[in-house]
Amino acid sequence: MKRYLLVLASLIVALSFMIESDKEKTEAQFAKISAVVKAEFAPDRRLKTFEPSLFISSTGDTLVLKGSTTEAAAKKALLSKLTEAGLNVLDSMVLLPDPALGGTTYGITNQSVINFRYSPTYSAESATQTVLGTPVRILEKKSGWTRAITPEGYIAWVSNGSIAPMTEQEFNSWRDAKKLVITTHYTLLRSAASEKSQVVMDGVWGNIVKYVASSGKYYKVALPDGREAFLLKKYATDFKEWINSRNPTPENIVATAKQFIGFPYMWGGTSIKAMDCSGFTKTSFYLNGIILERDASQQALTGEDVDISKGFDNLKTGDLLFFGSKATADKKERISHVGMYIKDGEFIHSATSVRINSLIPSAWNYYDGSTRLVRARRILTKVDMDSDIVSIKNHPWYFAK
What we know:
By secondary structure, the protein is α+β, with helices and mostly antiparallel strands. It is built from 7 helices and 28 strands. It has a 6-stranded antiparallel β-sheet. It has a 5-stranded antiparallel β-sheet with strand order 10-9-8-5-11. A hairpin with a 2-residue loop joins strand 15 and strand 16. Helix 1 packs across helix 2 (about 70-85) and helix 5 (about 250-260) packs across helix 6 (about 275-285). The model is unreliable at about 5-20 (pLDDT under 50).
């Protein structure tokens, strides 16, 4: 009997090893197929989400496809390739927006500045920021976090309290209501029309709030989540009037950019509180009524190419300069930094802080990274002509069409 039990135990151990071995092979096969599909349909996590996972039962005979994606074609291709490989799965993969959201797939940024991250945790890498009043599309929610799309199409995670979720009807009501935009660097919104009253929240340049009423020196305003506050009139103006007054000339955009000289650099920052290099250019254009792509590598593919192969004579004020490493036979071009050209070889950028440097080696403020200049792009000639350079007034999330 004892011998029989030992043999049985050995068989169970052997079977367990076989099951584990089969699981590992299945997981490896699944990972390989998923990588192929991702490369074809969703290579850039900033713009498309494709995060499949595979559940394998303890016996190894039941496979369940889980995870989520924004791409219906990617999900279809994955299921097809898995079947071709002999992996018959039960489909539980969520196509975003998550149906569990019901109708609340719209939202408005609910704090002066909010931080988006690449994963739903505070320890995850910073991705981008949006400012108060920014319209977003909600994709899914998970453990206190919301995955959303920004107006330029950037996808990342933000804590739930940072966005006021809305139905389409609620969103349209907010979008079409009379709104105000903050026009000073910093201010405070208070609980009453008095500087001695309790602070409700801070406000920064570009924040958008709903107009409620006029009260002496203050506007009474509503925040996206329904809270009310008071904002000094001298620090705000009518949003539509502000939009219509935008005159995004090269000189005006550079003048805006210069108002941030000395402001600190922060990875992932796209607001005046702190900004990375592409966040700086994005914010400078946004305050002149134009929405740029989020990252330097994305901005470098927009606009009109400027020939700098023989020097800087073709550059004009407001052109964007991109630094990194040029393409070789072995490597693709890599863009890692962006700045804005002023004139006479000088440009303004966010590096440690927002500052002005020169491309000319003999200049006192020469930028050591100038040898890494890869390309230049002219943005203003392509506004509302390219889908990746859109004026706020023509963006349907801000104004009804």
